[in-house]
Every structure is written in structure tokens, then in C-alpha cells.
UniProtKB/TrEMBL annotation:
It comes from Salipiger profundus. Residues 1-20 form the signal peptide. Keywords: Signal. SUPFAM superfamilies: PRC-barrel domain (SSF50346). This is PRC-barrel protein.
Amino acid sequence: MRHITLSALSLILVTGAASAQGVDTSSLHSVDDANVMGPDGDKIGEVEEILVDDSGSPVAAVIEAGGFLDIGDEDIVVSLDELTFENGDYTTSMTEEELEELPTWDD
């Protein structure tokens, strides 16, 4: 995994801004610690934060993934286009390999 830099975050936010306009934000009001499920139905992590662009539109989620009991976990940045809200959880069709290539978030 690679750590996200400020310029990379700007790129994510700028490129995600146009696509975020179509994102249904009604379910974003209580996403802290919402489960994120992988394509096989297994839990891959939890939502830690929602990232917004300069206009305040949500464009990405910081997902705490991997590890065991918060040991060895990493916070990764996932575009909201890659997440679907279903039955109280978020799901993604991204594979483990694709998730490992995403930038990490270090707040």
C-alpha cells in the first residue's frame, strides 16, 4: 500500500467531485463504524470517515481494513463510486488485491 499525499488527495477529490454529484448521500448521516463487506460477503473493514471536496460534497470514505483487534490495520481511501449501501452495510466489488493498491489515509 502507499500512503496518500496531499496532492494525491486533491486528485481524488477533484476527480471524485463530478461523480459524487450522482451519489445518494441520504445514507451518509450515520456511517461511522458501518461495516464494509467484500464481494464474497465477508467483512473487510469499517467506515472511519467520509472525505468531502471543496464544495462539501462527499467523494470518498476512509475504511479501516485488515489487522486484528486494531493491530496491523490500515486506513484506506475508497471512492464512494466503489461502495453500495445495502441492508445497513456498505459493499464493494473490489478484490483484496485492488483494495491493497488504494492509497492509505494517515490522519
